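Dear colleagues,

As part of the handover before I leave the project, I'm documenting each prediction I ran so the next person doesn't have to rerun anything. This entry is a single chain, and its sequence is reproduced below.
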Amino acid sequence: MTPKPAPLIRPAEPGDATLIVDYNLRLADESEGLKLDRARVERGVRRLVEAPRHGVYYIAEVEGRAVGQLMLTREWSDWRDGEFWWIQSVYVDAAFRRRGVFAALYAHVAAQAAANPDVCGLRLYVEVDNAAAQATYRRHGMHLTSYRVMEATDLADHERP
C-alpha cells in the first residue's frame, strides 16, 4: 500500500479567498448550526488575506488540492511579556479528515511559535459540546483552561459613557 502524501502547508493567497469563505461557512454550520452572511464573511476573509496585519490563514494541500485551513491571530500578554497565537477558523474538508491535515497545520504553527522568542503560547476557541475537536486538540498537547470567553458584539447598539 502506498503511503498517503503528507499535506503541504502554505500561507493563503488572494486566490484562496473563495475556498476560505466556503470553509468558514461550513465550519459555522457544522460546529454551531450558524448560517453566516456570505457577503460579510467574504469581506472579512479578503481583508485578512490582502492585508495580513490582523493575522494569516494557512492552507493545507494534498496533491495540489486545498483540503484544510487554519487562521492565526496574535494577542499581546503583558502578564507574560509575549504573544499568544490564537488558532481560529480551523476546517478540514470532510473527505480528508483523520488523514493528518490538522496535525500538519498545527505542527507548522507550533514550529513557528517555538522558533519565535516572542511567542508565549498557543490558544484556540472550541465549542463546549464539540468533544471530537477537544479530543483532537488534547492529542496535540493542548488542555482546557479555567477561562470562559465573554463578548459584546452589538457595540453600536448600546449606550457608551
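Residues 25 and 31 are 10 Å apart (CA to CA). The chain has a mean pLDDT of 92.

All the best with the project,
I.
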